[in-house]
Amino acid sequence: GDRWLWLRNNLSTMSSQILDTLIFSLVAWWGTVDLATALNLGAAKYVFKVVIALSDTTFLYGARAMFRKHHVPVVQAG
Length: 78
What we know:
This protein is an all-alpha fold. It contains 3 helices and no strands. The radius of gyration is 18 Å and the shape is elongated. The model has no long low-confidence stretch (mean pLDDT 84).
């Protein structure tokens, strides 16, 4: 339902992005920089992604409102 939509949106985005950022950071900078630097670069990138995830919540609620305005609700039997 609609309960905790903002939390579900942010937790799902943040959890998938931490995995993506970790894998990318290790692959992209392997052999170029040391492990600590690669992880620091990844952490900085992850912070940026978290800020984006938090700011996109407003757009999520806007998209949901537009969808509800333009679509007839489905009534479930039972």
